[in-house]
Design goal:
Length: about 450
């Protein structure tokens, strides 16, 4: 029996024990340790009676090593002694909810196979033939539904895309079962839902109409053209704007689908026209998307311009308020000192406690005024900018988030820098004036001293 995944089983009767001994010796010389059993119990060669039916089970990984094949890292190897055994094994995997799976790469060795096929994670060739390389150019092209398709856990007996075939003799009848694997793998991504009901896999197309179809039931492998078409369709759907492309293609397929029909057979006859129609409609979608993006860009530029003007308005407000306070202080001090513009009058001011209190209160006013204005203006601009960013992040339909942030940054950044510089200059000026007013005696003594000289 040669259609199991991990073992090769040979069966015979006791009268063939002589040949069996030669076979065991040959395996031993190649460091292969098969399991010999009678009625399911492990036995030695000498324990087999003339009428006993025996089984010899050989691990396929060990057999591959014995035949001289060295697997690479994370590579699973399966060996078959005939193409018919490969076909029976491969078709059986399609019917199982817990089918054969592999972690990374799979190599299938088939004795007498006259052709080879390969993909990013699967290759199949004849024993003793040169091994084709895995298709590293497509190594990172493992198609992921990305939430577009709901796939039942029972249908994910292996990662979607592992059976992808991209090269080799894709017309060979001997490997048609592997082409069917690849076609079924791709078909999982050309519907809206894959479910497991009543012991069979079903696919659902949701569009203007809802259609349920059978996933399996086809055991004839696709032609090279059919396989390339279905894999190209999946690659096109997942290239960009996945939701839109997938919806366009499924919408077109649903128009022609028949309830209960076999999905794979349906794809072979209708997919080409559906893909062409989806491509044509996608061009219209792209044009509409570009128009919508251009309109959104104009709208966001208008809002950003308003926000940039708000920064400029705050700078003007800070400057005008500072100049107004400075002018008011100068007038107040000038008018108060107008009648004392002599050395004796100014000297008497140094001893006046109310005057000292007045100057210190005025110094505190400049500090409080600067702190209050800077805090309120800064907080107001921060909140309006955050609201603008959050608003566009939530309401955008065509522009990516990175583009919204770029527009906001490029337009507002120069105005923000100007505002920060203005805040720093006005804060320093207010601090200097407050310091001079607080130490007004020292300043006035310096003025009087310079006047005496």
């Amino acid at each position: 029996m040669d259609d199991a995944s991990d073992t090769l089983t040979l069966r015979g009767q006791g009268n063939a024990a002589g040949d069996l001994g030669v076979l065991l010796a040959e395996f031993g010389s190649r460091d292969v340790c098969p399991r010999l059993a009678v009625d399911g119990m492990a036995v030695a060669l000498e324990e087999i009676g003339p009428r006993d039916d025996w089984e010899l089970a050989i691990g396929k990984n060990a057999l591959a090593l014995a035949l001289g094949f060295e697997p690479i890292r994370n590579e699973t190897v399966v060996v078959f002694l005939s193409a018919d055994a490969l076909r029976r094994w491969a078709l059986r995997q399609l019917e199982l909810s817990d089918a054969f799976r592999w972690a990374d790469k799979l190599t299938i060795l088939v004795d007498g196979l006259g052709s080879s096929v390969f993909g990013p994670q699967l290759r199949c060739f004849g024993l003793g033939d040169p091994a084709p390389s895995f298709d590293h150019s497509r190594a990172n092209s493992d198609p992921s539904a990305g939430g577009t398709v709901q796939i039942a856990p029972e249908a994910l007996n292996r990662k979607v895309g592992q059976s992808l075939l991209t090269g080799g003799d894709l017309d060979s009848a001997q490997t048609s079962c592997l082409r069917l694997w690849a076609e079924r793998d791709a078909a999982l991504l050309l519907c809206d839902e894959v479910s497991y009901r009543a012991g069979e896999f079903q696919v659902t197309l949701r569009s203007g109409r809802r259609v349920n179809m059978q996933l399996d039931g086809v055991y004839t492998g696709p032609t090279r053209k059919q396989l390339e078409l279905v894999q190209t369709a999946v690659a096109w759907c997942l290239a960009e704007h996945r939701d839109a492309r997938h919806a366009l293609l499924v919408d077109r397929l649903a128009l022609e689908a028949v309830e209960g029909e076999r999905f794979i057979s349906f794809l072979r006859s209708h997919l080409a026209a559906a893909v062409q129609d989806a491509r044509d409609r996608y061009r219209v979608f792209v044009i509409d998307k570009k128009d919508a993006a251009a309109k959104e860009t104009r709208d966001i530029l208008k809002d950003v311009r308003v926000q940039a003007d708000a920064y400029a308005t705050k700078v003007r407000d800070l400057t005008s308020t500072f100049l107004r306070d400075l002018l008011a202080a100068l007038l107040l001090i000038g008018l108060g000192l107008l009648g004392r513009m002599n050395s004796d009058g100014l000297a008497k001011l140094l001893e006046a406690a109310p005057v000292d209190t007045f100057f210190k209160v005025l110094a505190g006013y400049f500090l409080l005024s600067a702190a209050f204005q800077i805090a309120t203006h800064w907080r107001d601009l921060y909140l309006t900018t955050e609201e603008l960013t959050r608003w566009w992040s939530l309401t955008r339909t065509s522009l990516p988030g990175s583009e919204v942030k770029r527009v906001l940054s490029e337009v507002i950044k120069p105005r923000r820098k100007t505002f920060i510089v203005a805040v720093a200059v006005i804060a320093l000026c207010n601090l200097a004036i407050a310091g001079a007013l607080w130490n007004w005696k020292t300043v006035l003594e310096s003025v009087l001293a310079s006047g005496v000289k």
